[in-house]
Design brief:
This is ABC-transporter type IV. Keywords: Membrane, Transmembrane, Transmembrane helix. About 75% of the residues lie in helices and about 0% in strands. It is mainly alpha-helical and about 130 residues long. It has one domain. Helix 2 packs antiparallel against helix 3, helix 3 packs parallel to helix 6 and helix 4 runs antiparallel to helix 6. The radius of gyration is 16 Å and the shape is globular.
Length: about 130
């Protein structure tokens, strides 16, 4: 399981690069909300690709193990995000705002997707390997 814990760290880099792309490239041309939403969906795509690569290169033994990997990754992601946010001086209100779906904030999709992406990748790759 330690190898899968280590596989979480490159996702941090993907998220940082995704955020940098948003801030340096398209954020100045669109609203803050639209930039947030585009950034969320682009990170979902990146995490999906990355999860497929991890599952292909280091295949979990079972679908259950793939789901556990995703849940652990999601917990690490949330701990990192909130921990880093608090260290940077953000309030809980500010940090939780990104999860306010009623305000168009769709960041909640990231920890959900991180939790299930390895499982979905496992199912897709397993199915393709048996046909």
């Amino acid at each position: 399981m330690i190898k899968y814990l280590l596989c979480w760290f490159p996702m941090v880099l993907l998220a940082i690069l995704n955020g940098a792309a948003r801030d340096l490239w398209y954020k100045k041309y669109i609203s803050e909300l639209a930039a947030h939403q585009i950034s969320t969906f682009s990170l979902i795509i990146l995490i999906g690709i990355y999860s497929c690569l991890v599952v292909k290169w280091l295949p979990p033994n079972t679908a259950k193990q793939a789901l556990i990997i995703g849940i652990v990754w999601s917990v690490l992601t949330l701990a990192f995000e909130f921990g880093f946010g608090i260290i940077r001086g953000s309030s809980w209100k500010q940090l939780l705002y990104a999860y306010n779906f009623t305000e168009g904030q769709i960041w909640i999709l990231i920890p959900i997707w991180v939790a299930i992406a390895p499982y979905i990748a496992f199912k897709i790759i397993s199915k393709n390997n048996y046909h």
